[in-house]
Amino acid sequence: MINQFSTADEVRRGYHSGLSGKVIDVKAAKELEANRTPQTRVEFVTGKYRPPAVITVRSSIDNDWKDDRTGSFVGDRWVFTFDNAPDFEMKFVLNQTFWMSGGNISIKSGEPEHTFHEPAISFAYELSFQTEKWQPNHLVTLRNSRDGWRRDVYGVFRGDTWKFLLDLSNYDPGFEAKFFLDRSIPMDEDVIEINHGQYYNYDDKKVSFPAEPSQFRHGYDNFSTVEWPIEQSIVSTRGQDDEEYDTVIVGSGIAGGILGDALSERGKRVLILEAGGVRLPVHQDQLPRGEQSLVGRDELVHFDRSGTADFQKGAIFSLGGRSPYWSGLIPRMQDYEFREPWPDAVKQALTTAESSQPSRYDQAEQTLKKGVTLGAFQRRILDHLCKELPDYDVEELPRSYHQPNIDSQGVMQNLLRRANGVFSSSDLLLESLGFSELNGNHNLRINLHQLATRIEHTDGRATAVVCQDLVGGVERHYRGKNIVLACGSVESAKLALNSQLDDPKKRIGRGLTDHPTYFYKVDHVLPQTGPFGWIGNPTGHAKVMLRHKDAAPGVHPYNIELLINPRYWDTRFVDDNLWQSRVDPGGDSKVEIKFIFDSPLNNKNFVRSNGIGRKPEVSVARNETAACYKEGLLPVRDEILTKLGVPECDLSKTWVPKQWDEGVNGSVHHAGGTLRMAKDGRGVVDENLAFLAYENLYCCDASVFASIPAANPSLTVAALSLRLADHLSP
Fold this sequence. Notes:
Largest sheet: 7 strands, mixed
Radius of gyration: 26 Å
Oligomer: single chain
Structural class: alpha+beta
């Protein structure tokens, strides 16, 4: 069996800081500037599909997918070349018969090298079951004679189809299979015979079960509910809904997890409701490495797009929400980013200490375990850039990366505590549940697999959260003196809309916006000789953030992220040989640079409910609010890169579109604004995050952002959670 969720594009995506990793070398950049198209090289590194197996490529430019393009097998990879190719799509084909599984691979003209690895590229028998009757929360699995008739093979549900992939390297032809419903009921029809064909397609006319649909249909793709014994033993989920809590929180991500943990430690009885189960108990950075993207594997499709913009998915339903998968960047919002209509009281609380109490940003950095240093090389880079770029504030890229034994000067202290790595609220909550005391589970309950569908409310008060118990198959009502929505800018808005909440300013669901980002993708090599030779150290690594000292609305309104040797972003490897082959401390030293802008909300963007049990509709236009700055980024880029030893002659003098990735379509990761806060009652929630029409209903996630800062939202969300904890536990 192979992974059901990965496509070539998903596995290629990195999760660090949104950097695409799609870079082009300097030679290719110069050719692009001269409007010439270079040769494109495509490689597939494989241990499974070596000769005598034959891998070819079929593409949109090879007789419209009809002809096989042959390559050569060199070392451990198949190599294909395309001369003067325009933008095109392609797929690998095994033995001229089996097409690779998943979507097409898009190749852009001017990107000279593309390397793919297993499991991004796989060849499989594909069994599909298109159904209107047996959609999730029902679960359809596949059993077969090769694995034994008691083993469930899990698939993925997308749109209206269950799809199962059986890897050719594990399954020889000549076996039988059957679909099973809810891991217990076999299909009525005879077995499916798997021979030499690749595709086996079925629907409700060809497959039936001796039952009638009974489970709640939730409408999400790639989200199937399975409860594991470890969840029952560790999380101890209980279905009782006959008691009232001090606070009920919908969502267990950074916002909900931090808020719930803080309130429970202050003696408040807290219930956290989470639609998913335990996927990752800690951040993925603490797990064994692999070529497969866990983010791409676990993301679900939770909305339908309206319009032409390509707003990207990204929600993950699990304990901790997306926090076990995030990049860990925690910059603060700067003064200019608190643009109208951010309430002054919020800015004051986040940025300013009060009497003996640190600012909420200080507290949030402590909670998220802000890192101290990357060591001597990075400190030398910082000193160098501070001296050479006096108009900029230069600092280590703020990141959640626990370093308990290193002081503020970067000196190792006594090894009293082990580092926790990158923060995740799954880790925080599971640890709290493991101890029966006030700071542990004394006041904290977490109910998993509870999908909130609406909020009950009357006379200006929210009274209960109505949930579908996806394991128990029943509807539950959880009552709270206070109720907090903390399930993300799309899901919180959807829940508010489905609840038909009073909306005095008619802004619930309006304004979904992300910040525009411009990633310079020319792969410049840093010098290893001369006065800048120390910067080109191939084993050096630095993560740096720069801001112009005069940054203000309309004037340098962006953060700059600079990475030297970005291949070292996360370097957890137990296998030293893999370290050498995958990260390789030898060779060239390279640099990446990225510009992230703040943005006002676009009131034309929206989340629209299609009813309970259906995906909401999302409409997000391209964010061109920073387009006027594009040409102005070139001298800034030049000033920074030349101070690192990049020759000025290698830098284009005009904006060359193919040298830049423009992040203007937005993604759910950083988007917000659908339940905005505002001064003077002009938004959805007030400065204390309470809904204007309800005295005890709150929202605490990026939905409440009054504008979208250049800063990644996680630190601000954590700080708002700590402030709300103070408000709810005076």
